[in-house]
Each structure stands twice: as structure tokens, then as C-alpha cells.
Write a structure and sequence with these properties.
The structure is a single chain. With 174 residues, the protein is α+β, with helices and mostly antiparallel strands. The chain has two domains: 1-34; 45-168, Immunoglobulin-like. The protein is 21% helix and 32% strand. It is built from two helices and ten strands, in the order H-E-E-E-E-E-E-E-E-E-E-H. It has helices at 5-31, 159-168; strands at 60-63, 69-76, 79-81, 84-88, 92-99, 104-107, 114-117, 123-128, 133-138, 151-157. A hairpin with a 6-residue loop joins strand 6 and strand 7 (114-117). The longest helix has 27 residues, at 5-31.
Length: 174
């Protein structure tokens, strides 16, 4: 079978462009610290309020013995709970998410924090928030008529302010 030189050239160009796209995607993922979710952990969405970890009084931020912070949040039509959080800057933060009802997405603009929250699974993402200030927490997966109103707010403070809040007992839920 004979393949014309012009067809070979265009096939090479098409494969080269596809290879370039893959290289750019992989390169930007490595440079910006973007990782695919690797934590596969299941949970019964109908019994979240009965679970140890995602009971209402356990939601929010808590400091771990190594100084890192774990944030536990629940996504449900049409909100993230708790609605506001205070978190420290320049600290390793592990977000743990569950959904009450349907697939939700969560994204913090101007950061590398974005993931899907699938009912029946715990979504876990690690990040560091480098700059103090207010960050919106947005749902980026259409979840119904109230989707546009599904947001929360994260206030990032310096480590010194975070430690002062912890001493006062006010850092856990915002």
C-alpha cells in the first residue's frame, strides 16, 4: 500500500501537535503541583451526620500534631458547610470533602485547589495557601437550580494570627 508524501507529512504534523499538547499539560501539572486524586475512600452519604469524622461538630479546620491543618467540609444542595473558614497561610492544608446528594465540584480561584466531590466517596486534596486574604470557595460542577448560590468563604491569616485564634478557641469553624 502506498501513502503519499504529503499525507505522511500532515500525519506527522498532527501527531507532533498532539504530542506538544500532552507535553504542555504534563509540564504545567508538574510545575504547578497539580495531582490527580489518589485517595479512594468510601462513605455512606445518607449517614454523614452519624459518622465520626463528618459529624456537624467536627466540621471545619483542626490543627494536627505536626502543625499541618485538616479541613473537613460537606457539600450539599446548595452550600458548603461550614460557610466560612479561617485558615493559616504558608501551612500544609488537607481538605477532606463529602457530598450529601449529587456530584459537586469545588474550586478556590487563584490557587491550585480544585476537585470533584462524588457522593459515596471522600475527596481529599492537599494544598498551601500562600497569601493572606479572602478567598471564595465555588462549586464548579452544575448541581441544580441553586448552583449559582453555592459558595463559601475562606479567610487566610498569618501563622501568628492563626496561633492566636487557636489559643482563643476561635479557629475551628471560622
Amino acid at each position: 500500500m502506498h501513502i503519499d508524501q504529503l499525507e505522511k507529512r500532515w500525519a506527522g504534523i498532527a501527531l507532533g501537535i498532539a504530542g506538544l499538547f500532552v507535553a504542555v499539560i504534563l509540564g504545567s501539572a508538574l510545575v504547578h503541583g497539580i495531582h490527580a486524586p489518589s485517595n479512594v475512600e468510601t462513605i455512606d452519604s445518607a449517614k454523614l451526620h452519624l459518622s465520626e469524622e463528618f459529624a456537624e461538630d467536627k466540621l471545619g479546620a483542626s490543627t494536627n500534631p505536626d502543625g499541618s491543618v485538616t479541613v473537613r467540609m460537606v457539600a450539599g444542595r446548595y452550600g458548603f458547610y461550614p460557610k466560612t473558614l479561617t485558615l493559616p497561610a504558608e501551612t500544609k492544608i488537607t481538605f477532606r470533602w463529602v457530598s450529601l446528594d449529587v456530584i459537586h465540584g469545588v474550586h478556590i480561584p487563584m490557587t491550585n485547589m480544585s476537585t470533584m466531590i462524588v457522593p459515596g466517596y471522600v475527596a481529599q486534596v492537599q494544598t498551601e495557601l500562600h497569601h493572606a486574604g479572602d478567598y471564595p470557595l465555588l462549586c464548579n460542577e452544575y448541581c441544580g437550580m441553586g448552583h449559582a448560590h453555592m459558595w463559601s468563604n475562606i479567610k487566610v491569616v498569618s501563622k501568628a494570627q492563626w496561633e492566636a485564634l487557636n489559643k482563643q478557641g476561635g479557629a475551628n469553624h471560622g
